[in-house]
Design goal:
The structure is a homodimer of 360-residue chains.
Chain A lengths: L4 H17 L5 H7 L6 H13 L3 E2 L8 E2 L1 H11 L10 H9 L5 H16 L2 E5 L8 E10 L2 E8 L3 E8 L6 H15 L9 H11 L4 H16 L5 E4 L13 H12 L1 H14 L4 E5 L11 E10 L2 E11 L4 H14 L24
Antiparallel strand pairs in A: 1-2, 3-7, 3-10, 4-5, 5-6, 8-9, 9-10
Helix pairs in contact in A: 1-3, 1-4, 2-3, 5-6, 5-12
Chain A binds a DNA duplex (30 and 30 nucleotides) through helix 3.
DNA sequence: TGTTAGCACTCCTCTCGTTCGAGTGCTAAC
DNA sequence: GTTAGCACTCGAACGAGAGGAGTGCTAACA
């Protein structure tokens, strides 16, 4: 079956109306609100075709139609207007953040909050993983007799700190001295590179013989190896409760619990990250592998440091979500923070990994 | 009307049964399940009295009774068993945390998570405020040409960091030197004490004349003054969705949104903090000032550093909550971390501020 | 005097049938 | 190709009625 211009108009009308009302859309509604020069009967025929193509579906016989995952996919890829980026509030608010020298993690948090309030959906931000970050500066600080604090400044001015156990008390002067040496040896390297062999090498080079020093180095290396805090920041989860598709409390609960399980989210989104190019990535309904997300859509942007992707910012909402608004917001964000995003792709940058959706 | 032993038994039976079922309790149920030697008619008479005393209430004429705020208050103050503390799982799990030298804030987070999973309610932990904390150690670290990082270690090994703008680039050696001086001057003081006059004094003492130095000190003082991050950590919010009293999604939403507004929570709980003594504090239903919490109860423990209260750990649940379990869990916690809590009060430490509840 | 059986009454909840209306598919006419 | 008309479907809304849990009151009993 071929795809006429009119069919596309009708599909778009259904999507628009369903976005507003969250109720199945009937032929009459479209005839009155969108295509006044056509009768409902004509539209009925076209809708029948659209259903056969798998772009819309019928909850039950005597109901209107709702868009399917495939329908939304077509809308997002071909129909959606992509040029209204900057007359959003985004720009104004973003500018507030832009000027300050900030730490990447708090910037990301603020962006997450902002996107959640702006879109009224839920945002999920994966924080940069320590292991993949490069060390800028390192500093040992005295804490008490049994421990010191190791402060790490990495890419994007993120500050992390860990308690390091001490075999024997050490004063701040010696801690400073060690810090200096370690800085020379380690800064510029990624944390993942700071493995045992490297530490051994440092030990040899420094001709470390004192037991104290040796145990300290071991403790540091141990801490770095085990510090894998792929943190996830979520904002706007309560927005979920205002969508009619989640008026069933069990559904709402299952989704919210899923979103609050950091490890799961991390796993989910980090698999996405690998597959996607510079632009936005949209996953619609059943395109999501995970059961709980089958009636949700996720729009994801990767953020970078230098030329490496180091994390993602996602907006999660019902499949019915206002894709245009979400995409605009994210693209506005990407324009406003060119240092944080790849900006190669431009308009046609929306990518889709593989169409292994499970529509009928 | 006088309060017979039997009336208390009946009240307790109602509370117990309502905790389990979340449904109004009838006289017949009590006669069968709790007081088999009394007929339902007798119990009806007693229940009528209890209602007149305002301890229980009737949702509608032909329904059973549910406990009122006042009823729960009496239960908590007089009836509840208080001795089964340590056969809980608490102890075992807590021990995992106890050994390590940890930072207070992450310890509190873990405690919050633990209490939420243990009680199946929601926990709210207010983090120590920077202003009220004492400085242990301070360190400036180079970041880039325009900024340095100020790392503060305070009471409880909490590490905070702030970006400090620099007028001119400074190398790490000079930053170390300044750190040393500031450490001598400031460590041991509370952050609130580090106000402008003190900074001025330091400037004079150091005979600071260089513009660079002066602007740096100003920036530090400015940062400290404006850093008021009374953070709130919440865990187990989704548990709310499993209580029948919040099966109405609007109610659930209103509560969850309230709990996620950090500033509001902070305000709410910090007013509690002032009024309460060493032990646990329980606020039941309408005893809460805030509308959204009128059918919730909150059990709060203050935690301390040295002899100052610096924050609170609260469990929030429906008014029907299992007070005994929650109190046990919190008291177990307090026993396991004697450094973190005042342990003067002991058993009768539950306090109540003022009985301005609004029961009929 | 306290306890209990009995009974009328209330009122919520559940179920079932009915109606209503939105929407469809099909057919025939334009 | 478009449209009017019509029969049909099916969910949502409504109301009546049954059922049941629970109460309060009264009268009898120990």
């Amino acid at each position: 079956m071929d795809m006429s211009e009119r069919k596309l108009q009708i599909l778009q009308a259904i999507i628009l109306n369903y976005l507003e009302t969250a109720e199945p859309v009937g032929s009459r509604t479209i005839s009155r609100r969108f295509l006044m020069d056509l009768s409902s009967a004509t539209i009925r025929n076209e809708m029948s075709d659209l259903e056969e193509m798998g772009l819309i579906e019928q909850p039950h016989t005597s109901a209107g139609r709702i868009p399917s995952s495939k329908g939304y996919r077509l809308y997002v890829d071909q129909l959606m207007k992509r040029d209204t980026v900057d007359d959003q509030q985004v720009g104004i608010l973003m500018n507030l953040l832009k000027d300050k020298t900030v730490q990447l993690d708090s910037l990301l948090r603020e962006i997450g909050d902002l996107l959640a309030t702006l879109t009224k959906y839920t945002t999920v931000v994966t924080m940069p993983q320590l292991k993949r970050s490069k060390l800028k500066h390192l500093q040992l600080m005295p804490l008490d007799e049994h421990s010191a604090i190791l402060v790490l400044v990495t890419d994007g001015n993120i500050v992390r700190n860990h308690v390091i156990p001490l075999q024997h008390p050490m004063d701040s002067t010696s801690l400073y001295k060690i810090s200096d040496v370690l800085n020379q040896e380690l800064s510029g390297l990624s944390v993942a590179q700071m493995d045992l062999p490297l530490i051994q090498k440092i030990k040899r080079e420094l001709n470390v013989d004192s037991e104290v020093m040796e145990s300290l180095l071991d403790a540091i290396s141990d801490t770095l190896q085990h510090a894998d805090d792929g943190d996830v920041f979520t904002s706007g989860t309560t927005n979920i409760l205002s969508f009619p598709e989640f008026s069933d409390i069990a559904r709402a609960r299952s989704l919210m619990e899923f979103l609050s399980q950091k490890d799961q989210m991390l796993h989910l989104i980090s698999t996405e990250e690998k597959t996607s190019g510079p632009g936005l990535k949209i996953r619609i309904g059943t395109e999501n592998q995970i059961e709980q997300l089958h009636d949700c859509s996720i729009v994801t942007a990767n953020y970078r440091y230098g030329d490496r992707t180091i994390g993602t910012i996602s907006v999660v909402g019902p499949m019915r979500m206002d894709y245009q608004k979400v995409v605009s917001a994210l693209e506005g964000l990407m324009q406003d923070f060119p240092d944080l995003f790849f900006t190669g792709g431009g308009h046609n940058a929306i990518t889709q990994e593989d169409t292994n959706g499970r529509e009928t």
